[in-house]
């Protein structure tokens, strides 16, 4: 779950302030100490933490806060605003080419996830109607070029493989091929390198001078510690990082690197990698991330993803059914299928407000295909009205779907729970009246 | 180049900057509080983490009066990092999150053992990542080590099973087993790893080491990584990779403080020789600032 560690910690700290009528200077100072520790544990760079907390404390000790009726809320608002500012205002897209095809270079340390990210980005642009091409310039690591070719093929992305063992020569062939082809976006994957390695950094500068990339993306492991800022500075000082992609954010990292890198280099974070599948790349939204860190949930991302994955018409029908309490197993199955398109269940739960407080939820993805099999083994009548499923029907369904009676029972139980959940969710949303979902989960 | 030189070279770049500040403060007899603050900052910037840093400074406080802060901290770090390494097992399984350097470590360690005249056999059980088998085969070709790499998409536990039952495994002094990178929060993949280790344990009872590879640049998340991996498999050692950058790998101290799983090897680059057994002295001397002045306080 994205950054839930930090968000949980901050929620605990801020929760103590939330209900308080008046805050003393000592209260604020104690909270600031806690925030400082939480940020350090989240791997936010020491120097960034120092500045951040100093600024925060100054704002929070302002007369306005101390005399406010709900000082706790005020502090939370300030923390959120400051976090958003630190993460860098609004989301930004990839730079567009002035003319001709766009060329993007991916650079970074070894093992950051450049190859995977190259294909994810290509896939993303392909979905938007572009014709991307990927080329690996990694002559360094054994079988790196094979890796890109295989991953690209699996994702349905074109991969060109120039001959040779010299990155600059490969780059020249790549841009020549690209210029004469009808591809309109080129992604150049490069070998991993330490930012201190002068020889390899100069090689990268030479490639840059040759291909004149539209944008250079620095790929950074989100689990990196204090060194993240050194790396980002090392690349950006040489003009080898225009923007940043954070990878492996599907771990439980508290993601302090994200906070630090942006603050120190001023380079925007544009995308985040959240899984090994080629679709698991998301646009980075600073304001949403700030809300999420504070446990306000990432409802906007959820809605966006849902809109992309869900069939609107089907959703409207479903909404109607839910209102009339006609939600059947058939609907449950089609929901599950749409759900799978949305991403992993954990990912989705992570975006819901207050998810951090739920703790770690584990969900077996195989369960969904098992459920699918079980529902397929039911008669239409059973799907419409699960109440008629008695013991002998359960045995038949279990046999038919290759599962056990326990599995069938579990499904029916979950279905029942889901129906209950919908009722609550529906009522909650109606009460708030803020979120007008085009669908109901 | 010996180990200490290698480590020092790797870590020297950032250390030089810090050392200049330290020389003035420690040598000049600055205020004790300022000295403590600087040391705290230094440890935090090295990824030692707030919890371990606080404990180290508290433990060092006792000896500080007699020997000075820097030597006191040095002693405390040495105490934390001196492990009792149990006997070396024949089969070593390498596990860890994605991109920490498992395959490279296997390649380098095979070379390391070959240099000592040992018979080494390598099993490639990363059947998930594209071209992982080719990467490993290339490493083994360079170091002239026999290798059995599983087909992409096949069950990694069965690859290990077949590999360990081969003649090459029986006659080898060491069997090194590469596995796919996996995030510690992915329950299904952790189950897969647990099964792999279980199967290996059945094939070669009491001969299994599980080594976790950790990127020296990793922050406090490494604590979560080791914690979760420990719940599924019992790691018998850690390998700290990529210590040749600006990352100081201070997370090793936090890990030692919390888990006391011995650090066995350190990775210092991409060449076959860039792997050395872990030495607490070399590591601590490279981690801490070097001060030429006499640190003794009165």
Q: What order do the strands of the largest sheet of chain A run in, or round the barrel if closed?
A: 3-2-4-1-5-6-7-8
Residue-averaged pLDDT of chain A: 80
- Overall mean pLDDT of chain B stands at 88
Return the CATH class of the largest domain in chain A.
Alpha Beta
Please give the domain count of chain B.
Answer: 2
CATH level-two architecture of the largest domain in chain A: 3-Layer(aba) Sandwich
Helix/strand class of chain B:
alpha/beta
The string of secondary-structure elements of chain A, in order, is: HHHHHEHEHEHEHEHEHEEHHHHHHHHHH
Number of alpha- plus pi-helical segments of chain B: 12
Q: Going by CATH, what is the homologous superfamily of the largest domain in chain A?
A: P-loop containing nucleotide triphosphate hydrolases
- Rg over C-alpha atoms of chain B, rounded to the nearest angstrom: 21 Å
How does the major sheet of chain B shape up? 8 strands, mixed
User: DSSP strand (E) fraction of chain B?
Assistant: 5-15%
CATH architecture of the largest domain in chain B: 3-Layer(aba) Sandwich
Q: Indicate how many domains the architecture of chain A comprises.
A: 3
CATH topology of the largest domain in chain B: Rossmann fold
Give the distance, in angstroms, between the N- and C-terminal Cα atoms of chain B: 38 Å
Low-confidence stretches of chain A: 356-361, 432-441
């Amino acid at each position: 779950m994205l950054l839930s560690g930090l968000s949980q910690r901050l929620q605990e700290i801020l929760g103590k302030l939330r209900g308080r009528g008046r805050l003393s200077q000592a209260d604020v100072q104690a909270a600031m100490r806690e925030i400082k520790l939480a940020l350090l544990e989240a791997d936010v760079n020491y120097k960034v933490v120092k500045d951040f907390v100093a600024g925060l404390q100054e704002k929070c000790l302002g007369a306005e806060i101390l005399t406010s009726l709900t000082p706790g809320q005020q502090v939370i608002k300030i923390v959120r605003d400051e976090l958003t500012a630190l993460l860098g205002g609004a989301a930004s897209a990839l730079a567009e080419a002035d003319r001709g095809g766009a060329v993007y270079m991916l650079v970074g340390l070894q093992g950051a996830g450049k190859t995977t990210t190259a294909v994810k980005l290509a896939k993303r642009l392909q979905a938007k109607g572009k014709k991307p091409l990927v080329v690996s310039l990694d002559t360094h690591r054994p079988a790196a070029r094979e890796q890109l070719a295989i991953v690209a093929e699996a994702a349905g992305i074109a991969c060109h493989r120039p001959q040779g063992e010299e990155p600059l020569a490969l780059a020249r062939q790549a841009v020549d091929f690209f210029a004469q082809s009808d591809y309109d976006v080129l992604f150049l994957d490069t070998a991993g390198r330490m930012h201190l390695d002068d020889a390899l950094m100069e090689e990268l500068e030479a490639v840059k001078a040759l291909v004149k990339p539209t944008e250079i993306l620095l790929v950074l492991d989100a689990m990196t510690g204090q060194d993240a800022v050194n790396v980002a500075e090392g690349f950006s000082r040489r003009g080898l990082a225009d923007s940043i992609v954070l990878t492996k954010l599907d771990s439980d990292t508290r993601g302090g690197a994200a906070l630090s890198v942006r603050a120190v280099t001023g380079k925007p974070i544009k995308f985040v990698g959240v899984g090994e599948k080629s679709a698991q790349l998301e646009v980075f939204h600073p304001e949403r991330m700030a809300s999420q860190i504070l446990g306000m949930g990432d409802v906007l991302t959820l809605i966006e993803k849902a809109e992309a994955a869900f069939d609107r018409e089907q959703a409207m029908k479903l909404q109607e059914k839910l209102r009339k309490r006609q939600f059947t197993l058939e609907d449950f199955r089609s929901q599950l299928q749409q759900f799978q398109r949305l991403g992993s269940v954990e990912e989705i739960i992570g975006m819901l407000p207050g998810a951090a407080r739920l703790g770690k939820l584990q969900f077996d993805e195989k369960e969904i295909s098992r459920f699918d099999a079980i529902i397929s083994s039911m008669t239409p009548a059973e799907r419409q009205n699960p109440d008629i499923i008695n013991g002998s029907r359960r045995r038949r369904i279990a046999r038919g779907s290759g599962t056990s009676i326990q599995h069938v029972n579990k499904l029916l139980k979950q279905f029942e729970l889901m129906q209950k959940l919908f009722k609550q969710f529906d009522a909650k949303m109606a009460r708030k009246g803020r979120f007008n979902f085009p669908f109901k989960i | 180049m010996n180990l200490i030189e290698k480590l020092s070279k790797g870590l020297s770049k950032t250390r030089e900057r810090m050392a200049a500040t330290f020389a003035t403060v420690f040598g000049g007899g600055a205020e004790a509080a300022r000295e403590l603050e600087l040391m705290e900052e230094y440890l935090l910037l090295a990824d030692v983490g707030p919890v371990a840093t606080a404990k180290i400074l508290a433990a060092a406080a006792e000896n500080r009066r007699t020997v000075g802060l820097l030597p006191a901290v040095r002693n405390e770090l040495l105490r934390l990092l001196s492990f009792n390494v149990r006997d070396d097992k024949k089969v070593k399984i390498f596990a860890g999150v994605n991109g920490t350097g498992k395959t490279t470590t296997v390649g380098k360690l095979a070379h390391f053992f070959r240099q000592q005249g040992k018979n080494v056999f390598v099993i490639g059980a990363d059947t998930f990542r594209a071209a992982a088998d080719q990467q490993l085969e290339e490493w083994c070709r360079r170091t002239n080590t026999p290798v059995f790499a599983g087909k992409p998409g096949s069950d990694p536990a069965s690859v290990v099973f077949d590999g360990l039952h081969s003649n090459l495994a029986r006659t080898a002094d060491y069997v090194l087993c590469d596995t796919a990178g996996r995030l510690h929060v992915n329950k299904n993949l952790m189950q897969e790893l647990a099964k792999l280790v279980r199967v290996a344990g059945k094939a070669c009872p009491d001969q299994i080491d599980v080594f976790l590879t950790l990127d020296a640049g990793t922050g406090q998340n490494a604590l979560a990584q080791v914690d979760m991996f420990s719940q599924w498999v019992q790691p018998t050692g850690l390998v700290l990779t990529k210590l040749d950058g600006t990352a100081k790998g201070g997370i090793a101290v936090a890990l030692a403080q919390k888990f006391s799983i011995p650090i066995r090897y350190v990775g210092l680059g991409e060449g076959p020789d860039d792997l050395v057994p872990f030495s607490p002295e070399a590591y601590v001397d490279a981690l801490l600032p070097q001060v030429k002045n006499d640190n003794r306080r009165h």
